């Protein structure tokens, strides 16, 4: 337990240097609203991927997703995976309230992490966890500050 707290503390102190985060896109199984599974093999080839782990009640997550919508043009060529561990009612409410600019976009998928895999496999530090992976499925950047979405948007050409 002390080792885990120490790692979390060091991660917060070191910031966003990729401390502890998955450096290569891990295997995962999440679920679509229709109950169908979604995993690494379902990601389109030839596209960068932006994963956003959010909690529907988190104000930082709300702003992050809103900012991604505002910067949609920059993220338009990437696959955007919005992932939450909450129930579908909470997820749908979040999407309706904060992800309106992303709703219905062909490169945006909303997913539920039923088994809580994201934290163990992707190793985020806190919410919102935004992880940009390149075409080769390598971590380009990790951010958990809603105001750094704009920096992620600038990194998009490097990810493609």
Describe the structure in your own words.
- By secondary structure, the protein is of the alpha/beta class.
- Helices cover 36% and strands 20% of the residues.
- The N terminus is likely disordered.
Q: Could you tell me the strand content as a percent range?
A: 15-25%
The tally of beta strands, per DSSP, is 7
- Global mean pLDDT: 88
Structural class comes to: alpha/beta
Helix proportion range: 25-40%
CATH class: Alpha Beta
The best one-word shape is globular
Tally of separate helices: 6
**Oligomeric description of these chains:** single chain
Quick overview of this protein structure:
The protein has 160 residues and is an alpha/beta fold. It has 6 helices and 7 strands; from the N terminus they run αβββααβαβαββα.
